[in-house]
Amino acid sequence: MKDAITIILLSTFFAFTISPLIINILYKLNVVRKIEDDFSSIVGERTEKEGTPIMGGLIMIITILVITLTLNWNPYTYIPIIVLLISATLGALDDLLNIFGRKRLVRPFHRHIKLAMIHKDWKKRVWLALLIPWSAYKNIWYKLGSYPGKGIHAGEKIIVQTLTGAVVAFWLFTLLDISTIWIPFLGDFELGVLMPIFIIFTIISMSNAVNISDGMDGLSTGLLMTAYSAFLLIAIIEQQTEIAILLATIIGALIAYLYFNIKPARIQMGDTGSLSMGALLATMAFLQDKIFLLPIIGLPFVIEIGSSLVQSIYKSIFRRRLFKMAPLHLHFLIKGWSEEKVVMRFWLFGLITAIIGFWIYIISI
């Protein structure tokens, strides 16, 4: 406990120190939010966010890297740091393309097929024919409501996130020979060869759940702090020292970032931070063998991504919306709640679910 508190304070201090520098650099490089590329800018006071630096996830990522590499580099931190770097790189590329890139269109599948049949250049016909599966794959995500925009398309993100999950799966299932998961009150449950699939699915889901939740100043950051804190308490009880120190490092970085992210935010997390923090949260839950507590401790994230999925399915079937806007936090904003009210109530809900998850852990051990 003493070491964890020390690391939290050290991480918070370090992150506070580098934050103004990162914010100034992002301003100078014009890495700021552009309202014309934000579909939710029509809601409430969101136009006020124009010009706010994004890629604020760099504050957490740099802090976690520096402290881990200098004070906590060991076999328990290798893979979490790799997951952090891969996910942060994916998010950073998406953030930069959304600001400086050109609009990327998705060619309708029927048009792609037609071009593959009638294009005057036979080489182009062959190339288009080879790309038919890729076109079909991208159109599936487009039909599910993925807005193409300028950045990385949803289907492209899923591929990289699948590879990220595969790294964790290879580590746990192949190298460490772990094929069971702990279920509260039931003990260990054997998944066998399904373990890698379960790991990949969870990494993808949590990474995108945090990404979707990062839609208001302070929202996802506060939820992440309570979720990581619950897993830190579990690590302390189970005397997982190296894991506890890594979790403490993450929490300290989030505390400092939140100071600059509270409304009106001086910086926003961007995909750089949300994708990496979500993937890392799932990785830490697997590392602690407490993955079945994650949907409880991180229930707000599950509800957020679930609301978006339900909205897409409902709209495609009934041709109308179930929620006024998805994810759920935007639904409440349109209903007239202030942004501060939405954020604070989500924080309270996240705190309650984290306590419930920790309570379930305590009574089941």
Written description of the protein model:
The chain is an all-alpha fold and 365 residues long. It folds into 2 domains: 2-102 and 157-364, no CATH class; 106-147, no CATH class. The chain has 15 helices and 2 strands. Helix 4 packs antiparallel against helix 6, helix 8 runs antiparallel to helix 11 (270-287) and helix 9 (219-237) runs antiparallel to helix 10 (241-261). The longest helix is centred in the first third of the chain and has 27 residues, at 2-28. The chain is globular. The mean pLDDT is 90.
Give a topology summary.
Blueprint: H1 2-28, H2 57-71, H3 78-100, H4 109-118, H5 122-130, H6 132-143, H7 154-175, E1 180-183, E2 187-190, H8 195-213, H9 219-237, H10 241-261, H11 270-287, H12 294-297, H13 299-318, H14 328-334, H15 339-364
Antiparallel strand pairs: 1-2
Helix pairs in contact: 1-2, 1-10, 2-3, 2-10, 2-11, 3-7, 3-11, 4-5, 4-6, 7-8, 7-11, 8-11, 8-13, 9-10, 9-11, 9-15
Mean pLDDT: 90
As laid out across the biggest beta sheet, the strand order is 1-2
Q: What gap, in angstroms, lies between the N and C termini?
A: 20 Å
SSE class: mainly alpha
Give the domain tally.
2
Number of strands: 2
Uncertain runs with pLDDT below 50, 5 residues or more?
none
Radius of gyration over C-alpha positions, nearest whole angstrom: 21 Å
- SS element count, helices: 15
The fraction of residues assigned to DSSP E strands is under 5%
Q: Could you spell the SSE succession in H and E letters? A: HHHHHHHEEHHHHHHHH
For the sheet with most strands, the description reads: 2 strands, antiparallel
Overall 3D shape: globular
Helix content: 55-70%
